[in-house]
Amino acid sequence: MTTSTASGMPSGTPGGAPRGMPLAPDTAMARARAADSDQLRLYRLYRTVPTAVEYAETLALEERWIGPMAARFEAGAPDLPDRAALLRALRGRLAAEEAAEDEAARFVAEEASLEQLKVIASEFAVDGLTESETLLPVVARLPFASGLAVFRVLIDELGCGSEEKAHSRLYRDLLTGVGMTLDLEYYVRRAAPESLAYVNLFHWLASRAPEPEYFLGGYAYFESSVLYAFQCYRRAAERLGLSEHAYYTEHLYIDGYHSRQMRAALKSLDTERGLDTAKVWAGVELTGAVAGAAFEAAVERARAAGPSGAAQATGAPS
Ligand SMILES: [Fe+2]
Ligand SMILES: [Fe+2]
Question: What is the CATH number for 99?
Answer without folding.
Answer: 1.20.910.10
